[in-house]
Amino acid sequence: MSSKTATTPTMQVPLFDLRQQHEPLREELRAAVERVFDAQQFVLGPEVQALEAELARYCQTQHAIGCGSGSDALLLALMALDVKAGDEVITTPHTFFATAGAVARLGATPVFVDIEPRTYDINPALIEAAITERTRAILPVHLYGQCAEMDAINEIAARQNLPVIEDAAQAIGAEDRGRRAGSMGRIGCFSFYPSKNLGAVGEAGLLTTNDDALAERLRALRIHGGATEYLHREVGFNSRLDALQAAVLRVKLPHLDDWAQARRAKAETYTRLLTSARLSFPLAPPYLRANTHHVFHLYVVRVPAEVRDPLMAHLRAHGVGTKVYYPVPLHLQECFHYLDCKEGGLPEAERAARETLALPMYPELTLQQQQYVVDVLSRFEP
Ligand SMILES: *Cc1c(COP(=O)(O)O)cnc(C)c1O
């Protein structure tokens, strides 16, 4: 591996940059934080209720229920659907750990189904063969900001009488045939981890649903299962959204569509530049499914496995941030050895783990920075 020119970095392009997002909102954010101190209601309360109403409208659902994190949202969703020890939940191996971790935490078994190689989302054509009499739910992930194939998944779910939980942690505002992420399954799960498209300044999460009874149960489960204070119908846990996070999120939410639009424009620019660049190796830009609105939480490209790691070293040496999401598919994680999934068993997920890398993506990325990233890529020789 070598570069045509061994120059020192001329530009720094981080993988993402929150400073630029927060700077113009500084005064508004400060006022929002002070409002919480003045109200002295720090957990749940009116600030959280207001955010829930705004997010229900944004996600086009009847209900939105705040909770402690995206991981907790997944756990609460599974609990509200009565997923228990011995049950099975069908999901994807190519995702953040929490998706399958939530299933295993309840003593249930994650059943991994391979991904569709262009979108990296769960392959609906392989779901039905994985359904058994123990299957209790299907848990697709809208990976990188593009919705999984919800029509196909919902059709299987309806036929098999199974609920669908959408892991929409990376996809707030994304759409599939005009329907928003989190509004197409029985329950939607969102994360406001700081680096997500809508980020808090700490941990926060959300559940969405159109089912009144489920919404009520989720509201109880996040406060130890108490329907009213001190009266517990069932055992939940503590996963409340705090008012400081809600206040910050309410400042940011009105900008979310503009930020998503900027991400989409940056993605288009990358793809155009990469397609016309003279690269010394094959590179597949993200694939856009028809009739979807991709919000580009991440811009992930595919290159040959033997090129990937030296290419990333080359990018970093030239000041360009890059990362592999996700280097070890979940079915091959040590904690899931008991599932007895063999290497080679889910070939597309395993190939994606070897061949993909993310390029810098955030709404404030400049054309000059993008041109620099593509220039650095084109100077790489395997
Ligand atoms: C971030 C993320 C989660 C977990 O969210 P946290 O708020 O970090 O707990 C779950 N699933 C996916 C796909 C994610 O990207």
* Counted beta strands: 16
Please indicate the percent range of residues in DSSP E strands (runs of 2 or more).
5-15%
Quaternary form: single chain
Low-confidence stretches: none
The helix-strand sequence is EHHHEHEHEEHEEEEEHEEHHEEHHEHE
Share of residues in helices:
25-40%
Account of the 3D structure:
This protein has 382 residues and is α+β, with helices and mostly antiparallel strands. It has two domains: 2-18 and 255-381, Aspartate Aminotransferase, domain 1 (Alpha-Beta Complex), CATH 3.90.1150; 22-254, Aspartate Aminotransferase, domain 2 (3-Layer(aba) Sandwich). It is built from twelve helices and 16 strands. The strands form six sheets. Strands 2-10-9-6 form a four-stranded mixed beta sheet. A hairpin with a 2-residue loop joins strand 7 and strand 8 (179-180). The chain starts with a strand and ends with a strand. The mean pLDDT is 96. The structure holds pyridoxal-5'-phosphate.
Brief overview, please?
This protein has 382 residues and is an alpha+beta fold. It contains twelve helices and 16 strands.
Which key terms come to mind for this protein?
382 residues, alpha+beta, Aspartate Aminotransferase, domain 1, 2 domains, 4-stranded mixed sheet, 12 helices, 14% strand
